Amino acid sequence: MAGQGSVRMNLSAGLASVGVAATLVLLKIWALGTTASLSVAASLADSALDLMMSLAGLMAIIYAARPADEDHAFGHTSVEDLAALGQAVFIAISGAAIGWTAVNRLLGAGGEQALRDEGKGMIVMILSIAITLVLVLWQRRVAKRTGSRVVAADSLHYVSDLLPNAGALVALWASREFGLGQIDSLVALAAAVMLLFGASRIGKGAWDALMDRRADPALIVAIGDIARTWPGVHGFHDLKTRSAGSRVFVNLHIELDGNQSLREAHAIGAGLRRQILQEFPQTDVIIHKDVAGES
Fold it and tell me: Class for domain 217-291, per CATH?
């Protein structure tokens, strides 16, 4: 049930992301035609790319939700890591491009363009920021509950959109009130730095999972504490973990009294497994039973 709940939450975040991206594209197309603002045009291009990324992320979530089969005995959740790694690369490229453009503008490359109807453009950008903020809050809640790297990467992408949107808003306001045109370049440069740092974090997490790096050390310690104090368990060894998407696979050897019945040994292992799954619903646990004192 917990797994199905996580799937539903991930799907809701993916569908919300696609819906928001499509809405923002339509709004910004209208704003661009109204204002002729280059900052709005840049924001429109970013939202159009967001739409493509959100669609790719949604497809990854849907594929990852497929049950295990003969060819994929451990399920399909690794596709989340592949999608997150692709998103991280795309975010890094976007950040570098935004930063390069911002620096060029600050150094005076390219000319300024007169804007029009800035007030209407400002309304669109305020609405865009509000819609994006609501989406990010939901995505972060889902990512925290399910551990989905796809949702986390998508959330980062939309967080990075808040600064360019704010930059476009400030640029429109500064153009209308003071005739200034350089402010959003500074905001864009800050957004580029945030993009690069965020892409590094998401990309590292996805890469580590694809390379079968162990799970969070705190999770490993917590599982070890449960096993150490579980009734009937005389010790444990070979606690191994790996991550695939939002799932954590756990292998654990427990040491039991060799004189007890198979039924009793099974009951101890099954109870321990249920407790671990209750504490950490994102895990998939396999427990091996060994005789205490024998290697």
Answer: alpha beta
